[in-house]
Amino acid sequence: MARLAPALSHLSQLILATIPLFFVLCYFLVLAANRPTKQYYQYQDDDVAFQEMVDADGPIIDLDYILYVFLAFFVLWLCGAVYIGIFVPKRHKLIDAYVTESQSIIGDVKYTPRRNLRFFCSLWKRFSPEYSIITYRHPDPVEDGITRNSDARYVVTKKVRTYQPFSREKVAISVLPGLPRSGQPQSDIEYDFASFTDAKSGRKDRARGILNVMLFWIVFTLLGSIFICLQMNRLDGSDKDVDAQAGWTTWATVVFIGAPLLAFGFNWWRWSSHRKWLTQDGRVVKEASAEARAARPGLEDDQPGCDSGAVCADNLCGAASVDDDESQTRYKEMV
User: Fold this and answer.
1) Per-residue pLDDT averaged across 155-159, rounded?
2) Which candidate, 6, 1, 12, places its Cα nearest to that of 209?
């Protein structure tokens, strides 16, 4: 039986995908290098002869546009490099905390299938992650002003990303200490952790090769933009459409102000929102003690996950009696 060819790594895919871009940018550099040697710059005073030579030589791409192309790709690659070099390690460290520091509790997971626009991305699930709704009772006591009621608990309902698109009951939920809303299904955390960890040699930085490719593109586009500006200096005065001073001003503004603000600002916002969504998002209800629930029948209707269309975790919908007898409240099935 013939063996299937191994799948290309992410690094190989990135290199193959950017080879055409490399040749296109090299072509732009060749055009910029040959621009000052064109003979039609000797006929600036004769409009007819100048236009005839320009038409014979083919269309002209303004150096300004070539500069904009190099600066645009410089910004894009810088944003990608900052994402790989800063955001990804921070996310790995957070997943490490879930594996090494979290406590495991029991909760329920309800899968929410793709709908609306997300349904059209189903052919390539990488661009359309799966989500589920989890519900669990946090083991830490509720802070009740001055005193701590040891019988009252936090009940949390939140949306999480899942790698297992199906509903589950009584599964392990990993919760970080001091963060009641940080619950994540333990099996999904383990899957995420395994995606960037090598079992034999420990942590393996798979993003290093991709980061090196991005650094090459950052240097290449930066040096290419400088070369374009130097060619604009040579044509300043010979070509009325070339403004070298404006070119250098654009280059300095993008390289020293625009690109760093966009790269670091966007990734900082992306990381802050991701961390908040992972550890602090969700709906929390302070569940009262057993005595209070027994004195107020129907309190379970106020708990998250017990209304229609939500998720009902284990024993959240029935208030146990003081004598530990069977609950008089009908338990609602998980929907």
Assistant:
1) 89
2) 12
